[in-house]
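Lab channel / #folding
Pinned by the channel admin:
"Please post every new chain as: sequence first, then the structure tokens as a reply. Keep commentary short and put observations after the output so the thread stays searchable."

First post following the new format, from NK:
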Amino acid sequence: MTKIETKKLKELPATAICGNDISSSCLYVSALSIIYAGQYAWLALLVVAAVLYLFRKIYGEVVGALPLNGGAYNALLNTTSKSTASLAAALTILSYMATAVISASEAMHYVHTLWHQLPVIIATVILLAFFMGLTILGIGESSKFAVAIFIFHLLSLTTLALVAIIFIVNHGLDTLFVNYEMPVKGGIITALFFGFSAAMLGISGFESSANYVEEQAPGVFPKTLRNMWIVVSIFNPLMAFLALAIIRIQDVHQHKEALLSYLGNIAGGGWLSTVISVDAALVLSGAVLTSYVGVSGLIERMTLDRVMPQFLLKKNKRGSSYRIIIMFFVLSVSILFITEGHLGALAGVYTISFLSVMILFAIGNILLKIKRSKLPRPEKASWIAIILAIIAVGTAIIGNAIMNPKYLIVFFQYFIPTMLVVIIMLKRIWILKFLLSFIRYIFEPIRRFVLNLNKKIIDTINKINSQEFVFFTKGDDIATLNKVMLYIKENEQTNRLKIVTVLGKGQKVPENFMRDLDVLNREYPEIEIEFVTLEGKFGPKLVRELSEKWKIPINFMFIGSPGDRFPYKLEELGGVRLII
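Reply from TO:
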């Protein structure tokens, strides 16, 4: 499918889309970390910032080497199997779904504190519908809205911090000293463990930028990671420290739902509390936009790989996959009504999902180092950094499971149905064949009916298997070609393969290569192998020409891992996949 050209996002709009999600965390993570870590909350949040710094390198290496939408799904798709990658995709979709519903609902609760007549559930649906429409208009239009929210949010937090500091200068640090004299339940280590686990919720959204990297201008992606890290590293610990210096810990428990608004009321008065409440409503709304943009890029990528139904690929004139966006809206609204607006249970889905996605991304980095070591990349994460990052996120998952054991049960209630849908799509050939056998066995007496249904199902299987794939070879040996065939047999649903070699002027195909092809034909009789030789130069132009000529999507074309001397970046090939 030809991708509609859209204007690439620059640094500020690209940062704003994902930054609204992650920067909104200070509205709730300060209270959470104080509840669990007490006077050491700011320290737990600094540890979170250190962990996030490790993930800057991890995301930078993986997305730099594979700059395609899909995040963890894309990383694992190019290093493992499609089924493993789909696990990461299912977790990411759950994370976005929970983020959209919770953020929209919380935003309307903040508005409700200012306007008590507001019907929260209806207003939440309207907000979800608004961002659905905004996203359908295109990422360029929605990014302008995101930028406005992001700038207002940073200005609001800066104002709150300055007013709080002035308050402390005028009134002293008596409250801070009182808080530090309070006993720490379970000791400092235990407090930091649970405080860190709760504070890790504050990095949700960091993974989102990788899901729309193709919409970003060259060189922008690593800047979005840097900018998000700076915002989280400054504001999250600072807000927790200022809260501890002005508000007693026992009062934090009473105002945990809107701690910063309460902080603004004490430090600056009602006007500042109102500003923070308005800011909270806006930036949480921005997090809804992040979910729409992220899930759109991810599901479009999955659909191109035939993990999701193909009808989702339909685009409007602005280049938006509007069917994906509408489907996500319907799912979000259905969950809102199923839970009747009581979204506490969804926090478990939200927590476990995005933390699991980050671990899978780090695992994808490890596999990238092992299996794609020659693939060019702008930066590299050290092995120590990856291992520490995995341990840190794993610790956070364990901590959250201990603090909220019910979260795991709720998580699996949502995760299992989601994975079933993905498995059905991945195994639909097997399922169709099983259905065919079942029908033949049960309905043999009604033969005419069975024959008609049999024909329809076989046609469906043939249609799926008739999709032709391409592998570009540089004269690989029989062992390499066999790996290609095994990958296609295990991961793709097809019975047709073109093996293409591009020769320079005067070059000829070695005789032993033709003998190897004969061996492959005998070994894989179920796959029709066509060998094609072309004279010219392999590159993006040739890939596009062959895709149009043969009517084969570029993402169904494969190559081996290119070396350091490969003259093109992977993204220039338009989505060609690496399979060996």
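NK: Residues 270-304 form the longest helix (35 residues).
TO: also worth noting, The longest strand covers residues 496-503.
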